[in-house]
Amino acid sequence: MQPLDLIALLAGIFLILRAILSAIRTFVLPRAANDGIARIVFRSVRRVFDLAASPIDEYKRRDSLMAYFGPLALVVLPVVWLAMVGAGYTLIFWAIGIRPLGQAVTDSGASLLTLGFAHPETPAGDVIAFSEAVIGLGMVALLIAYLPTIYAAFSRRELLVRLLETRAESPPSPIVLVTRLYRLQGLDQLHGLWERWEQWFAELEETHTSLTVLVHFRSQRPELSWVNAAGAILDAGALVRSSVAIPIDAQADLMIRAGCIALRRITGAFHLPFDPSPTAETPTRIDRATFDAALDVLASSGVPLTADREAAWRDFHAWRVYYDEALQRLERLTVAPPPWWILPMRSAPATDKPLEPAPQPTGGPVA
């Protein structure tokens, strides 16, 4: 074998093994691997979507466009893997004597796609062709096999996001959440809410770092977003712990800690920068005026508040500083709708709308 043939053989083996490793890291490995090939594919597809979405001012239209980003990138990724495998086997066929290069491309493509119209006329050609067919089919089968897993994790994530809408409106607001629970059930119901969201954050971290495409899967309606829901429930926990005059519930602390860990690790999985050790002087996007406005709405709704607003502000800021930057990075990454504190603040009674009566049947009974 000539030196050039040996180089082509080694390069082909490298491309094949690299494609297989990328597939394993993306779909099989149960931990955050952040594969370079997958990252390049997603970033390339995202640039196309960003260019297409940049002229669109209306958020609903932009959301409708960005809803295709995650699924389309997920479909493009196996195509890239198959192209790498095809190119790798093309080099192998050329290295073992298939000439000219166009014939090596034909033999590789026919083997990869199991078309069967080309037959490598060289020793060991059939074995190599069979191995390429197995790898090609395995790549496609891997995507098909993991689609149910991806959509099952998506459905579990969205269930609690949708349930939060009934308590906190849409986009979710911690002000609406606290005032609605205070008026309907009492704030002692918050304990169970903190427990459910702690579990939600734990599963969010596990699924969205091992299957990062889930980060880009959008909710069914433009005003809903898992990032906004995470921010709203964390802000609700921080507001209650810092400002609401009720007995201390350690479950709120655990929920906030779980949320901070989840958002930071998801942000880290995408190599997005954030300050891992913020201080009390580190600013957040919620300033003192916004905080006071939120407390004014809570007070006007009858929610019992602590007397020392200065201490309440320091405590709230101390909570939010740990997840503010990671939350901001994820909002930009997912093109999330505006968060609650940018919109006009309202209590639950201000958002309640009476249900319209069901239409009365007309005519005779239906058989």
How would you explain this protein's 3D organization?
- Helix 5 packs across helix 6 (125-168) and helix 7 (174-184) packs across helix 9 (226-243).
- The protein has helices at 3-28, 36-53, 59-66, 69-95, 101-112, 125-168, 174-184, 190-210, 226-243, 250-269, 288-300, 309-320, 324-334, 348-351.
- It is elongated.
- With 367 residues, the protein is an all-alpha fold.
- The longest helix is centred in the middle third of the chain and has 44 residues, at 125-168.
Keyword list:
367 residues; mainly alpha; elongated; disordered C terminus
Brief summary of the model shown:
This protein has 367 residues and is an all-alpha fold.
Question: Secondary-structure element order, as H and E?
Answer: HHHHHHHHHHHHHH
How much is the average pLDDT? 89
What structural class should be given to the helix and strand makeup? Answer: mainly alpha
Low-confidence stretches: 354-358, 361-367
Strand coverage percent: under 5%
- Give the % helix: 55-70%
| Biggest sheet architecture | none
Distance between the termini: 83 Å
Assign an overall shape: elongated
Number of strands: 0
Give me the Rg, rounded: 27 Å
Q: How many helices does DSSP assign?
A: 14
